[in-house]
Amino acid sequence: MSPADPSDLPTRLAGVTDRIARACREAGRERDTVRLLPVSKTHPSALIRELYEAGARRFGESKAQELQAKVADLGDELPGLEWAVIGHLQTNKAKVVAELATEFQALDSAKLGETLQRRLDTADRSLDVLIQVNTSGETSKHGLAAADLPALARELATYDRLRVRGLMTLAAADPDPAVVAGSFTALADLRARLRDDDVPGDWSELSMGMSGDFEAAIAHGSTCVRIGSALFGARDYS
Ligand SMILES: *Cc1c(COP(=O)(O)O)cnc(C)c1O
After folding, report:
1. Engineered SS bond to 119: which of 25, 98, 154, 225, CB 3.0-4.6 Å?
2. How far apart are CA 58 and CA 190, in angstroms?
């Protein structure tokens, strides 16, 4: 896919939105049970502006520094613009997320939770958080091991600035759809167990599915699909 030309964006948005609607129908789910999170990391502010004009309000970014730059660019210009941080965060960058983000989807340690709580307290803000779970066993991926989830969830419940709303995962990078589906099923099962065990938290959110696998994720209960390249084109990391 070529880097996005802004004029393609409305067409790509309509295409992705249609595919989400179809996947919901096929899964027997209401359309409004799945939200689209456009992932704007590496892409210029001009493309965010374009999608904002098409109605998008919350955007996914991976890195604290890039988030800061985009807030400086767009924050005053686009009222109601919100940010979801979806990438691994080092504790020394927690302040940026505490001050600028509405949502953080990659919480994976008690230490980071504690640091965010402290930074949020100082900023007098709250943050929606999803716990990132490593459902693939791939060591290249961040996220908590499933076995550690209940203990972290119980600890996070003591932090009043964090609103724990669910779980996030990156599916296995595998050409076999059954293996990818295994990641989604695992996340859904973990959530069911947290609910059964009355672990404190909201647990309404299952953030799973990206450009290459979001229809399968919706079939397995995703409530948030994080879509980058299918909207904005290929990323250039150079
Ligand atoms: C980059 C990224 C995405 C978007 O990936 P695409 O394949 O471009 O849709 C989704 N989730 C996370 C955590 C990401 O880092």
Report:
1. 98
2. 26
